[in-house]
Write a structure and sequence with these properties.
Number of helices: 4
Largest sheet: 5 strands, antiparallel
Distance between the termini: 146 Å
Radius of gyration: 49 Å
Structural class: alpha+beta
Helix content: 25-40%
Amino acid sequence: MNSRPPFPSSPPSQPSPYRYLGRGGGERPVRLQIIIALVAGLILVAVPLYLWRRPKPESIPSADAATADAGAYAWDAGALADAGAALAEGVKLSPFTTIKCENPGPGTTPPERCDHVTFFEDALARAIRDNVQCAPSGKASITVSFVFEMDFRRKRTNIYAGKSTTVNRAKTKELLRCVKRAMPTPDWGTIPHQYVKYKINVMATYPASDSL
């Protein structure tokens, strides 16, 4: 009985084909694990560094601080209002007098028979009180005579310092400028009046600068 010859062995110079069957699949999981480990290590290092070096947010002002600021602003506004009121109370105004009133045509009207145009009288009194800071100052009290003219036909007004002013008229320019600027724009058609032209006067006495 003939025996089957044994299988020939592979030459030693050629690697066995069975040696690489499981090698390729084993290297890939190892590389993947290394990459995951490196990424995890970077995360573990980077996150603490970011948390340590990130800029800290500025503190939000508390409600108490905001309330204190609002209170300080209100106090400043109140103080300015009180100072303005004190200045306005310092000036003394005489009653308004009408120097003349007239209509076109012959004849004149006695001043005592002229009506009072209260719109302009009230507006002028308010403008004088609101602009005390524009008045010239001195060691003694001063008086400024305000002469106010109105013309309903031409719809014009004029204001200047009268002869009874106790200071040089050059020193009243700034005061007159402030008072003119504070006068409201009249709606001529709605202002009650009996005559076309008027000239009125009011005396304003300002205290000495030391008492302001």
